Every structure is written in C-alpha cells, then in structure tokens.
Amino acid sequence: MADAAVGLLREQLAGRRSQLAAVLRRADAPVTLRSLLSEVDAALERMDRGTFGLCEACHDPIEPGRLQADPLVRLCLDHLTATQQARLERDLELAVRVQRGLLPPSPFQAGPWAMSYEYRPAHLVSGDYCDVLPGRDGDWYFLVGDVAGKGVAASMLMTQLHAMFRALVPGGLSVQHLVGRASAIFCESTLPTHYATLLCLRAQPDGRVEICSAGHLPPVLLHDGGAARIDASGLPVGMFCSADYTTTTITMVEGDALALYTDGLSETENGSGEEFGIDRLEQAYAARAGKPPAEVVTECLAEVDRFRSGPPADDITMMVIGRR
Ligand SMILES: [Zn+2]
Q: Does pTM top 0.85 for this prediction?
C-alpha cells in the first residue's frame, strides 16, 4: 500500500482511537472494547514501524481493498483461519445479495422507452454501476458506470454512486450539473485514486435524449439498419473536485435503440490475446438494428461470449434502451 494511502489511514485510525479512548473512560464501557483499543494501538504501531499491510504469516502484502475496509486485519486471505474464512464468505454472500438488490428491473418499460440490460460481475461483486431513475415531467434517467478497480472495494464505491444519483436526480438539476455535483461529492468522499467513468442519459417523452459522458466509452445508436457511436467526452467522476461537464442531445425515433456498455465487454480477449474491440461491437450492434432491446443484449453478449477464451477477466454491463 502506498505511503500516502497509509498516511491517510493512519490519520483516520488515530481519530477513531481517540473516540474509542473517550468511550473507555466511562464506567459503563463494555470490557470488550479494551481489546479493540489494543488492536488499534498495534495497527498504529505497525504503521509507524513500516510493517503495516504485510501478512503476519507470509509477509506478503495484504489485499489493499481489505485493508482499506478494515485497517486492523493482520493476515492475507490465504492465511485466515477456517472460521475467519467462513465468516468472510458469509459477508461476501451478503454483499452479493445487497448489490443485486440495488439493480433496476430488467426488462423495463416506461412511456415510449423499453430497456433491457445484463449485469455480470467478474467475481462475486461488481464495480459496474447501472440504474434507471424517474425524473420530472415524464423524463427518465439511464445510468451506466464503471468504478476503477474490481472486487469488494470497487463494489463499495459502486454503491456510493448508486446512492448519490438516487439522492441528486429528484433535485431537478440539469444533466451537466448533476454529473458535476456527483463528481464533486465522489471526489470529496473518496481517496484520490478512486474514480469512475459514467454515462448519464436523460430521455424525454418526445424522443430527445441528453447524454453526458464522464470519460466513459461512447454509446452506440442503432438506427435505420446501422449503428454509429455518439462521441461525447468528459473527465471521470471523482478525478477532480471542480470538473465541468457538457452534454450532447440526440433524437430517437420509433425502432431506434441506444447501447451503453462497460469496457469489460469491449476488452474481452480471445485465445490469441486479441480484444473484441469497439469496432467489432459496433458491427454486432449494427446487425441487430431494429430488434427489441432484450434481443440486442442477448445476441450481442452471445457473440462476445463466443469470442472469449477462459472466464471473464472484468465486470461486464450492457444496457440497451429502445424507443417504442
Ligand atoms: Zn499470508
């Protein structure tokens, strides 16, 4: 773990230590808190000695995501006891259920819009973000994002994105201000290395769709038997606290569809290490122009699956929004 990250953790832990010490000064403090205090002191000592983050059994670095979540851990995953392993597995199963519970319904239909998506974690939990939210005056917001990193740490940040947009969308901000606000909050509340790419779409009842990209892969418009990328650019959310965003507006007619996806899809590799790539994906979409969203998702993913060798290396999300 980098020195700066340890420094920040040390600061947070020292703050929590003084709160803990204050509680322990009271006569009615639970006795179990005494051993917690000595664990905290031991962690602070490891930070000062420079041995923080190393497994006490094998001296290899402990998984950074676990340390971030609990600076008191002293063993890498390989060296946990059977009881500790079992407890961790139960926690993960619970995390999987919590994350599944945050996903929107699929297929989804509202007004002139029909949407379908597929959300596939590479392991148990995913760092991809996917949501649908009602706006004002019959508008709908469609969101797809990708937190840098994978696994539990990324999934925790994904839940933060989820909560942030759920809290911000009803405020009625313009799309660019909505993404700017989300970026500022994400930036202030996470470590500098934490950021996410994101597409935020506002679909209006008349078919207009406003698109804001925070450094995400371009959405693809399926129209009139073909497919075209909609180029939009912006900085990932959380990278700078004061980033400004712009939007691009397109108009979708009946039968059109817009495909959003994460890089786990385009970066899928075959046996020779070749990427599926954006061009091939665009062709796959073009071949399905005019089909209902659910079929576009299923057929395009099947094409990517046929291309892949081995298990997926990254989280995958594909969302297709069609105008009825
Ligand atoms: Zn170890």
A: no
